Amino acid sequence: MTNPFQLTRAADLDDDQINQLWVDPGNKLSEMLRPSSPLPMIILGGRGSGKTHLVRYHSYALQRRVHGKEHLLARVRDCKYLGIVFRCTGLHASRFSKKRVPEAQWHDLFGLHLELTLGQLLLNTAIDFIDDVGARATFSEEILVESLRGLFDKPLGPEVRDLNGFRAFIQTQQRNLDHQIGMASFRRSIEPPVTVRHGQLIFGIPQKLCEHVPCLKGIMFTLFIDEYEHFFADLQKHVNTLIRERENPVTFKIGARPHGMHTYQTWGGNEELKQGSDYELMNLDALLREAKTEYKVFALELCLKRIRFSANGWPAGWNEVNAEERLRQSFEPSKTPEELVAEKLKQRGGGTAPWLEKLEDYLIKDLGNLVKLGIKSKDDVTTIINHLRCNDPLIEKTSSFIFYHAWRDRKKNLLEAAIEIANSAIEYAASKDPNTDHAKKLGHFRDDMRDQMLLDLNLDRQAGANGILSRYVGIDAWITMSDGIIRNLISTLKGVYGWALFNGEDIYAANGISLAAQIRGVEEASVWFVKDASVLESDRGKVDAGMRRVAELLRQVRFSRKPTECSLCRFSVDLNTLEPATKKIIQAAEMWSLLIRDQDRRSRNGGKDVALFRVNPLVSPSFYLPVSARGNIDLSAEECTAIFDTVEEGKFKQIERDWVNRYNPPFSRVTGKRIGRKKATGDTTKEDDELLLF
Amino acid sequence: MSPPLSANYPSHLATIKKLSESAWQDAKITRLKVDRWLSNFKGEATAVEMERLHAMHLLAQHIFIGRREIDECLRVLFEERIAYPFVQKHKDSLRTADAVNEALQRHLCATTRFVGMGNPAESGTSLLYRFRQVNRLPLKVFSTPCDAVEITADETTHDKVAVLLEPPELNHLIFLDDFCGSGTQATRRVKKLVKALRSHQKSVRVSYFLLFSTQSGLDALESSGLFDEVRPVIVFDEDYKAFCSASHYYRSALNNISREVAEQTMEHYGKKLVENPDDALGFGECQLLMSFEHNTPNNTLPVIWADQPEIPWHAIFPRVDKIE
């Protein structure tokens, strides 16, 4: 058995695999791509979002494979386009700079190289198509080549007599140019072997072909330019100019990372590309994230396709109808947190649960300050604890949570509060009454309470399948964690199946993939994801450190005794208040998808719009964060600087203490000054008032 | 069900798993095999957990030479030792790649023979087939030592030796082998033939090309005087001896890992696995940690490869011993 998810990058798949592993439920992606539409498109998507697979699937190389020669002509006429893929990495754009050659010369040389490269690609694809459909005899090659020769500024030699000769000529010019570029360090100047006006080959070759070759009439030449982020701004201007000055029958579909469009400017008047008129935008990340149901369908179909491809057909006992069910069943299910907690409590041999032990400790330590709240002695503490006891651990835990709220609010006698909480617990246990405090709290904080119980009982990472990491297993959890980025799902499954195969497990049998394999696979994917990103960014270490700190801060707040936000894995900040260096780090984290920007929201303080970021769910297992985002904390500019743009840990530690002290007993004391939180005029919260008192 | 033995060593296990998916692919190492191998260590030399920790530490650094690596070494061997020198010599007269290739093939057929070291059924000899495939060489340039160099009694005198060459213009005899540990095996095998060649066919150049060698083995071969050149692709220097003071397996400070404890443990179990106690850490005291796709040399620590029915030991990279 082989790992169906071994290959994770579309760039590593061969054409056959691209075709076999293509998934597009309802043809929606292809429809959105509109390959034959003359209006160019910019496709923005993070790493692993599927851009490369999308563009490669629509290339001619795949079209001919999918349709076969017999039906090729009819299908291409039906689709009305020929797809040509060009990866920007292939041009080695970094060659076009420095080496004592003036920048202006480099611009011209790049433009020429682009003409020759893309011109060749267009011509080669057309020739392949003509030969594939046997259309060489349907036109006069002599007349065609005569018109093609006119595309160059200088007359060409007599050796360029036919299409193959013309193709060879362009190839030779490109090689000569490559050679000269390679020698630039020694020669200081470069003399281009030919000259051709901007766009002359890129538009001219398809135009002449369509004019003279019957089978190409009405066919769009769609240039898929992938990995656009590898071109720096000045080079992008060339392509942007081509987009702006586009001529039929050529169009462009540009694939880039979210921050990969370094400029929308063009040469000539420095005009910018205008969305809507010069191009349309496809935000692949956002599309897949927002269409949660469709993405889930897509993800499951892709997994099943991979399995079928890897196993050379359905595994034994699987078929079209039951495959999805079999897939789910192949993963050993985890115990529920309640089951794990019950088992652990039983092992402890009864006694007070750790969440109540902690509460007792806190109350006793703060006894001197609780007189006004009705607690005068240790006996009172014992009374409170006894009121809060319950046979159901989750209800008991929730009781302690509600009690912490009462303590924090300091509104009532805590002994009375404990009695009220006990009544609510009884009511909830009996009838699940939605009007009880317990129902209201559990409606929001259920998952947080469960996870807190696990950690209170030391069922952390070390506990393996019996610990908190068991919350991150199962295909549905991984689909959610991948958050619309299909490669994240594939990487997770690669780890899971890799461990299962290494363990000698039957990956297609019911419960075949053990919890241990799933947990190790998820951990591996989480570590890989962060490492993979941090290698790529130029502020080496800062993004990594910043992510670690913000995730750690969220974790601390989430597991505090009285978090105010449920399912906490987000923070908000007013970007306009940030120092440029801090903003740059946050944007780098967003660019590498470590942080995901959600829709901006209103700040709780001051009512301004603030940017909302959430930690990528794939990072969650490393910090025990939830995979579904609900709550967030507001960070000030200074706090963000301390988190993202400060080398020494001291400042961050202070912020962490500040936040942690807000949500842990005794609540009323803050160690160190609060950093950066300005009191918005006339809009303080009660919480801020009380904290500022100390 | 108790957890697998290797579960106690998660970071080493993660490394081994990665290796099993990549460099060790041909070896098909599974967790089951790792656990079985770990179960060999029962706490006889020191505390059982310490023994297993040290065993995992060593295993995670084991060198496995798979098929791809062997093919690449065979290609490098041919290109660097035969093809490139030929091209350098004739580059002024041969202008195209095709012309070079043709001339080289003609030259090899006329003057060179590749032969295996040892018995045709041994690993060194089986390399010839792969060497031919990888480098696309004609069958003609391969032979056996006895066919290439025939030592007979002189027909007229009957008491003198005649050494006949096939082809008669043979001037380069190349022995091909996979591995040299101590060098004793190679010298023993070819001594008679090479001595005869030296006496009666002095113009024949004798080379020994091999993929891997220890430094001490290389020194022994070179000082034997039997070969005009000895060319390994990769040499394992002293640092590759698992427990020497400069061993690169223990260079960085590691929690609870001690070279001395490891040596003591592996030697203790090694003594039970081999006939000669001097070989407890590998034949010739080589203390190697390596295996090939086709076999594990006995210069490697016996705890890695010992796999005979009479000895209760689960090998992780088994060795198929020669039946002499």
Question: Could you walk me through the main structural features you see in this protein, from its secondary elements to its overall organization?
Answer:
The complex is a heterodimer of chains A (694) and B (324). Chain A is of the alpha/beta class and 694 residues long. Chain A folds into three domains: 38-288, no CATH class; 337-459, no CATH class; 537-694, no CATH class. Chain A contains 28 helices and nine strands. Chain A has helices at 15-20, 28-33, 51-57, 60-79, 103-132, 141-149, 163-182, 184-187, 200-212, 233-244, 284-290, 292-310, 323-329, 337-348, 354-365, 378-388, 393-409, 414-431, 437-456, 475-482, 486-502, 515-536, 542-558, 580-591, 620-623, 637-644, 649-662, 686-692; strands spanning 41-44, 81-87, 220-226, 250-256, 280-283, 568-573, 595-602, 609-615, 631-634. Chain A has a five-stranded parallel beta sheet with strand order 2-3-4-1-5, sandwiched between helices. In chain A, strands 7-8-6-9 form a four-stranded mixed beta sheet, covered by helices on one side. In chain A, helix 5 runs antiparallel to helix 7, helix 17 (393-409) packs across helix 19 (437-456) and helix 23 packs across helix 24 (580-591). The longest helix of chain B is centred in the N-terminal third of the chain and has 24 residues, at 67-90. Chain B has 324 residues and is α/β, with parallel strands linked by helices. Chain B has a domain at 67-236: Rossmann fold, CATH 3.40.50. The mean pLDDT of chain B is 88. Chain B is built from eleven helices and nine strands. A five-stranded parallel beta sheet of chain B has the order 3-2-6-7-8, sandwiched between helices. In chain B, strands 1-9 form a two-stranded parallel ribbon. Chain B has a two-stranded antiparallel ribbon with strand order 4-5. The chains are: A alpha/beta (694), B alpha/beta (324).
